[in-house]
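fyi for ur records
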Amino acid sequence: MGLLRNAGSRWRRDGGPVATPTALAQGVSTGPGGTWAWAVIPPAATDELDSARLVAATAENAADLGRLLPPGADFHIKVQWGRWSGQDYLDQEWRPDLPDGAQQLLALQADRIDANDFPRRQVLIGVRMDVADTSLPAQLTARAKKATTGALSSGDAAQALAVSVKRVSGWLQRMGESSFRARPATTQELAWALRHDLRRVVDWLPDTPIASGGQLARLKSAQVLPGARHTEIGTDLGTRYLRLVIPTETGFPATGLELPGGEWLKHLDVLRSDDDPTAPPVEVSIRGRRPPKAEAVKTLSEALALAKEQERTAREGLAEEAPEQVALARSTLSARLLEVQSGLLDMVWDTPTWVVEAEDLDVLDRRTQALIDRYAGRGIKLWAPPHLQDLLWKETVLGDRRRVLEFAQFRPLSTLVGSWFHGGSQVGSATGSYVAANTGSTPGPVRTRITNAQLTRDAVTTVLVGSTGMAKSTSMCLMLVAEQLAVPSWAALPDMKGDLGGVPDYCEMYGGTVWRLSAEEQASGALDAFRYLQDDPQTAASYAVDDLTLMLPVQRRQLVEAPLRAAADSVAALSDPDQRSTHAIIEALHNSTDPHEQQLGRDLTSLARDPLARAVAGPPDLSATPIPTGPGFVYFKLNALRLPDPHTPEELWKPGGRLSAMFVQAVFTYLAHMSSQVRGIPKLLALPELHLITGFSYGTSLLERIARMGSANDTDLLLDTQATGDLLRIPGLVDQINSVFAFGARTDTEAADQARLLGLEPDRAVLDRQRGLRKGQCLYRDSQGQIAAIRFDRLTQQIAEVLDTTTKRHPTTVDTSTDGTTADPMEEAS
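which gave:
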């Protein structure tokens, strides 16, 4: 569309003083630059949209914006960056009832947010509302009034102002109902944007609904020194240097930009590099105007006529062959004109301006060139015009106006919308614990509040999938401990591999109550159902019969069920709870007068001495702390189990396999009881290495039951597995998934299964991305279906070391050639 820009030579540059507002209120600013309606476009989750949905969303947004931008009106889009505040997070999450340890962890999370220096994006879209109505009826009415009454009366002025306010309110309402989900900008957001324009460092904001008079004077106090090649702004932290970069006259490809890949404002954190790790994201200001349809048709028709003339002239001088660029421009203009005439396309004049910031001129030069080079790789030509820097800077200020028009781009509105200035990588909860960093186009802290799912009767299952060594289990435990400390709850972690022993240590570091149970060494009878079900001995007896039966060879089980139940009933009938136990059932059989029951008692007595059975069927150690049925963290270390192969028939199980299966069954019985029977507190059940238990019927049964009934029972599931395909095959589980964390995959098959869990099409780009993720990085699909790339944060080096699951070697075999430096906790976890 470069042929159209030649018309800009007739425009004059506006060098008047910067026009700042004289008053700000919710959704509106007014001043010498006019009355503007302002809306905030909240971050969205668009980074990971597949091609079809990206194109559809662009078309919907373009149609909405074409309807919402009044014909003939100026508009202003501002993309600015502040910083996420640890203090804001602390203020939002702190409660007076939080235990001391939980407050310490909360403060640590807030400090970590500050240390990470997360940029926070604000997108404002403004439309000037005090423009004259250019429709034919309005022009005729105005001429009639002028002919009969002369100048406008004060009543007419008041009526005009009332009309502007009404138009502002209506426009803001329509923006909120559109696909942008925009909301009126608050007075404070507008004040922040203005102060940021003029001062860069925002140290004060008005706290009133309307800001005017002295408040605006305080906001507008600034030290700005325009120069030929840059603008200097005095701040509380020293001088900041700005350079304004705009497209050249032929800066954008004539045929537009294709999706996906053409989202030229999607990523603005483009200057940060290993050489310049502190570079702030680039800010963008887009001044534009949507011409009425008749004006757009006229402009395109004139440009098409010019293109035809240039093509004819070129043919005469080049043996009937016109240059390819001229022919392409003619073809494009013809298509544009037809689309505009038929109402299929809206056009806009707009000038995007990139704002590069630095603390000194050398860095400013380097960052400016890096920006120009980055966009050149996309086929977009940018430059920093000298002697226009002051005018371009004024254009960026909230409430000002268009000043330099000769570089305006005349193009389809869909090309502007397709830049995805309004997109983002929004993901996670609005409240909750800080657990990770958003690494998408809108960086920031990622927060979760797992236990909120029940409050909205939402699904309760969170799954973490990915190849081994990608930090799934560590990440799950970071969320689990943060949740358990912040929300008084019961949490349990069966550790099938035995490498998560640092998790209860981490919980205790911040005052959590922890109960440990190990299959290797544990108080006798610690997992006996009679101990945690003292008020329900009949249910405990039923659980005990299940456990004792599984200890025996499958060939004997049917023959011993009756005497086992009889002995269990007699124990359940005892009045003294301390006399009721699984071991008491064995003793009852041992003391029976029936020789067969005596033999059964002797066999079970021998089996109960095995370390794998002692915690369930051994003589109860009444001095040991009972397993909790209230708030607390329960850790089961189960790596010493010798579970049989799930494909081996039970009649071929070895004694160690039977006792291991019984131990896991007893653990799962306790977990199921806590999930379904204990009321009044949230409950969290984390199951790492899920593939180690889904091969057994009781493991699959527990998952299905909790997943289906978890919301009603106030129980959340956190599942971690390498075998995404196995997860997909568990009946009914996928429908109950609330959130998905998909870590790196090593095969296309695994990556494709992950894509299905995320709700994405498993195309080549998705598969390659999942296979390219590093440790600690993942795609997160939250409960709202939003998807973004994140990286878990282990907060401190001490926590990172406590949670480290790397296999340790004997000191004599350790490589001592390292430099002894410590890793950043944000780096990938083991």
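Residues 5-10, 149-155, 814-822 have pLDDT under 50 and may be disordered. thats all i got for now
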